[in-house]
Amino acid sequence: MRSIRRTASSVLLAMVFLAGCSSVSLGTSDSSSSSSPAPGPSGTAAQGGGSARAIAVGAGPQKTYTVQKQPTAGTCHYRYLKGEPLEDPACTPGAISPAVTQSNLKSTICRKGGYTSGIRPSTSITGKEKKLNAASYGFTGRMGDAEYDHLISLQLGGDPNDYRNLWVEPADPGHKKGAGVNNAKDPVETKLHTAVCKGKVTLTAAQQAIVTDWTTALSRLGLG
To answer: Fewer Cβ neighbours under 10 Å: the N or C end of the chain?
Structure first.
């Protein structure tokens, strides 16, 4: 009986240890930030079918945004594909806004007159987050040449201020130092937005393609 108890205790301790290692460590935020590491509901929504992974659901647009905590400094690592920078999926897996769905595209991201300007956090918020996130990724380049990028863009229903959906994106290969932000990811997002609004692909498919690999998103969906 004692042997059984000892075995059960060992198994329980192992399970607790593994559970504690599964999350991304979050560092401190600016003094004006929210005390919560996540900006709202941290649930996930199944996106697509088959082996498609779930994408986190953020808090969505807010009347007032606060500076969000970022992953601990030095814990995030860029990946590169043919020189193009890719996010660390452990730190920046993406997060979608619950305010944008396939059924309300015409009144949100596809509406005439635009959508994103009314939900975008101010630079007083994102500027502080960008510096914190740069430390997370160990980015030491010119901040003016790097974009604080929504992995799933706002025009594709990405969450506006969820730390899981934002990362400091370095400049593209061959970028002239001091020339400002000019990333190849941006036109990919625009083409996906056009395809979604024209009904060529679903919102879910576009979001999945971006979080999988933005450099192959268009070809993955047969858009070029």
So the answer is: N
pLDDT digits (tens, 9 = 90+) for 105-161: 999 999 999 999 999 999 999 999 999 999 999 999 999 999 999 999 999 999 999
Cα distance between residue 125 and residue 33, in whole Å:
9
pTM for this one? 0.79
Long-range pairs, 176-181, Cβ under 8 A, ≥24? 177/142, 177/145, 178/142, 178/144, 178/145, 179/145, 180/144, 180/145, 181/144, 181/145, 181/146, 181/147
- Residue 206 has which token pair? 């576009």
Q: What one-character-per-residue DSSP string does the chain give?
A: -HHHHHHHHHHHHHHHHHHHTSSPPB----TTS-SSSSSS---EE--SSTTPPPEEE-----SS--PPP-BPTT----EEETTEEE--TTT---EE-TT--GGGGGGTTTSTT-SGGGTPPPHHHHHHHHHHHHHHHT--S-GGGSEEEESS-GGGTB-SS-GGGEEEEPPPTTPPTTS----THHHHHHHHHHHHHTTSS-HHHHHHHHHH-GGGHHHHTT--
Task: Identify which of 41-50, 112-121, 171-180 has the greatest average pLDDT.
Answer: 112-121
